[in-house]
Batch of 2 targets.
Target 1
Amino acid sequence: MDSRIRTYQIAADYIRQQIGGATPLAGIVLGSGLGRLADRIEDPIVIPYKSIPGFPVSTAVGHKGNFIIGRLAGREVMAMQGRFHYYEGYPMELVTIGVRTMAMLGIRYLFVSNAAGAANPDFHIGDLVVIRDHISLFPNPLIGPNMDDLGPRFLDMTCAYDLELQQLAENCAARMGIQLQKGVYFGSTGPTYETPAEVRFYRQIGADLLGMSTIPEVIVARHCGMRVFGMSVVTNCANTDNTPLALNDGDDVVRQADAAAERMTTLFSNMIESL
Ligand code: HPA
């Protein structure tokens, strides 16, 4: 057996021992400042990443490092409160270890969220944006010998973001009176934010959202056949000229994400209830 798969299995076995019983239906990755969804999970079992064999410790601002397993809207879910970013220095195998462990546990749906900057001038701070596609500047997490037991060597990415889940999001949002935007997520490694010239360039090639996460997780989730729903919370509008006033800062990102987290939580709950 591939030693990487063995690592994921050992982590999954450890978690299974802690939670016993039912396999969660959906995994949820919570982005910067979006961790409060975890507070709505009933009868939570908290498993710190640092207690799980093979897992690293998450260090980013606004991020905790726990799996939270319990019920959301009556369904069993498993949330990642905090993720591993490439800019923290982790290799791609560790950036994606949480998602692969969830897949090993038998989880079929992945809801990924992030705080993102808006490159689309029609987007505003606090907007919820359904990710309909992405452009990646990350090294591909599937580089290296393929894990044939998980998925194919050459992975189709035409519908990486599940079309039915996007429709479900629109239906739920309409019912709840929540406004949604749709867009293309452009992911780069960070940790620097984009220069204004880069923002203009990325906008020209189709970026609506700018971020430093999510894409590696989505690729490995698709590789092991999970159905993916992605959502960004707009925490800032990216600078397109060299004025010093609209500089990004980490605290502001966390504050804005907090305000929108409540609406995103309600939307995710409604969607998961309907799965
Ligand atoms: N760029 C990249 N990542 C981000 C941003 C941004 O403007 N805002 C929040 N995460």
Target 2
Amino acid sequence: MAEPAAPGGRASTTAPAEPVLEVSGLVKHYPLTQGVLFKKQVGAVRAVDGVDFVLGRGETLGIVGESGCGKSTVAKLLCHLERPTAGTIRYRGEDVTRLSGRALKAVRRNVQMVFQDPYTSLNPRMTVGDIVGEPYEIHPEAAPKGDRRRRVRELLDVVGLDPDYVNRYPHQFSGGQRQRIGIARGLALRPEVIVADEPVSALDVSVQAQVINLMERLQDEFDLSYVFIAHDLSIVRHISDRVGVMYLGRIVETGTDTEIYEHPTHPYTQALLSAVPVPDPEARAHRDRIILSGDVPSPAAVPSGCRFRTRCFKARERCALEVPELAVPAEFRHQQGPAAHDSACLFAAERQVVR
Ligand code: ADP
Ligand code: MG
């Protein structure tokens, strides 16, 4: 059932100088059961199925992919809200994958999550002050009791909210303001890493840019590293130093802004980019729109070989037999250009043919 792992010795393009998080072979499978009384495992939902990346200090890694490809599961694994089925997560060089008790609590402080939907992720019965200060209840060592109220007010100020709002409730705020509250809460423990799971997807376009600008300012001010998750390539472009494109539980292409947006080599990235609206009518007219065939397969029935092959316009027989590794394609390895970045496609170097 399990496919052979991609061969080792991968030639990665980008290795940050000071890695904060190193993720290797990360897997999360959820058991698929049948029967009510006598539950029998009949398979697995392969939500995350072999993800590798490195996050450098002060860097933003954007992760993009369609709904259901495993982004939120990656986020939960990074924040230790779920336990991986396999693989390792290193934090500042230390394997923190299977910690428990006090040691786990200590690492959790350093990696905080900002959730997708500020409308449902904030407890409506708690005041803003209690929401932002709640992490201090869980980690009392982080701030002396007498100092917490002052810190909460300061956090509100830092995210651009009036400190006098501490006694208000979430429903008294707009979506953008609520996400600022969520961010203030995420900052309370002064983490080193923030995993933001589609932090602006639920917001109006006009508000999205404000929240992204805020996050950029906070990154400088607090020396933060971000994993910034989105389903839309255009949202992560501005904020990310590097981008990883996910499909059905795996990262299929990763590179810098220019590499991914100007020189994508994976057919899936090419298709996603071809669907991004182009404001310039001239440029629009000269562009090939790639329409992918069929739907995303279920993560409980992942295709053999390359998992993208059932929808790929380049697919041929070999794609069903071989799992392409995420590495610089051999044809590009000798060159310095922007095509020389990690891409999990056996035919990445072939010219883009649109069927
Ligand atoms: P995304 O955030 O990219 O939309 P998710 O990580 O939420 O994707 O989900 C990936 C896949 O895993 C989906 O098919 C989803 O239905 C499945 N999944 C997520 N959580 C669970 C769970 N607790 N039990 C079973 N399947 C799950
Ligand atoms: Mg999600």
